[in-house]
Amino acid sequence: MRTEEFAFASIAELAPLIHRKEVSPVEVTQAHLDRIERLNDHYLAYLTVLRDEALATARAIEQEIVGGQYRGPLHGIPIALKDLFAVKGVRLTCGSKILADHRAESDATVVTRLNEAGTILLGKLNMHEFAWGGTSRNPHYGTPRNPWDLTRLPGGSSGGCAVATAAGLAMGTLGTDTGGSVRIPASLSGIVGLKPTYGRVSRFGVYPLSHSCDHVGPMVRTVADAAVLLQAIAGPDPKDPTTSRAAVPDYTSALREDIRGLRLGLPREYFFEDVEPAVRDGITTAVQHLSSLGAVVEEVSIPSLPHVIASSTAIIGAEAYEVHAQTLKTHSHHYGADVRLRLMLGACIQAAQYLKAQRFRTLLRQEMLDILGRVDALLTPTTLMAASKIDAITVEIGGKEFGVAAHIARATRPFNMTGLPAISVPCGFTPAGLPIGLQIIGRPFEETLLLRVAYTYERSTPWHERHPASQEGFG
Question: Is 460 labeled as catalytic in the residue annotation?
């Protein structure tokens, strides 16, 4: 494998070569660091690059592997993290001015687990300030650029993760998802994004936005890579009492190309309303393709969905304000205007509104579980729109105007409210060459089935083989 090919190799492709000592972890790490140095000023994906530390780790790991101490498929793989994961001694900005010089005192649990798996940390990634937004517009560090079109948003709040992964600046990344912040940028940037079941992955050491809606998940180029990363980070953690003690299965065993007989539900209400025609057509084609592979697709209805946005806004807003209440008193002027406004609106949410939203959440979850008792998984668009221009405040669909920041999360928020696992997988491109994402949603802790459906679809379509390198225009 040539050095320039490392940028878009999958973890699943590269791991066996590292194991057989045909490829050096130092060589792979150096190739990614060189690419970051050359391209990050254009993409604005990284906030902190750990060049010296990454190379030192790569050299130590190479010696381990040469000595026969191979740990598994992540050993020697260079990755990066959204900049709200604590890494001891490393800057932890959360995309904010307030924490610009803050350094973490200990590692997040997922960081410890990735270290144990043998990954190499390249650096920390750009994001929407404090993860409170779906665009990744950042007034402090600049907005990361969608590698398919540098004039467009990558989605957020894990925008830097999506850009780094799609543009070949990391082999895989970890993001967080409170209202869609893993799946939205995955969809808009043409990669795979997995939000596991609430409680499947520890959030200890991850700066919170909304305690009851936050999830940690992998952002990668293939479904197989999502399985490998999830395997490393999943499981109970005594430091996070919300984690489940349910057994962690072998996620890679789910990767088989067979969905014959699976029943897949298609909720047309809500998810196919106010959707861009090119996105609707791409999803329709993807659903037809799954049907041709042997799945049984049937339409389903989730009556409570129209109330999701209001209820989730009340819950996330109130919980986010609780996190930031003290800092708002002392550093209000240091927040970006959009995040400050959202936090101040969160302060206005009354206890009765919050409790009403939580009761609705219980109803919505039960509705979805009832449907998932009849079908194996649900299919929807991940986003109802392709990537918008960076400075666009509104988007027009079907003669109606919608706010970009709100509309971008319409299809993802229901599954943070219910805690169900969901994955976004590339399923095509618009006529303008912008990626489209298919969202697959499953029962609690049945990530294996989601991975199976996503893997079967991915392996029978060409979308994961396309990369934006030819559109960079600068390398």
Answer: no
d(CA 320, CA 219): 24
**Domains: count for the chain:** 1
Place of tokens 């687990």: 113
Residue 202 among the catalytic residues: no
Residues 295-338: pLDDT tens digits? 999 999 999 999 999 999 999 999 999 999 999 999 999 999 99
Q: For residue 469, what pLDDT is reported?
A: 72
Of the listed 96, 181, 187, 311, which one is catalytic?
A: 181
Q: Where residue 361 sits, what CATH number does that domain have?
A: 3.90.1300.10
Q: What's the Cα-to-Cα distance from 365 to each of 53, 208, 305, 360, 443, rounded to whole Å?
A: 44, 23, 10, 9, 10
Give 3's pLDDT tier (boundaries 50, 70, 90). low
Query: What tens digit of pLDDT does each residue of 191-240 get?
Result: 999 999 999 999 999 999 999 999 999 999 999 999 999 999 999 999 99
Is 181 part of the annotated catalytic residue set?
yes
Domain range for 455: 3-471
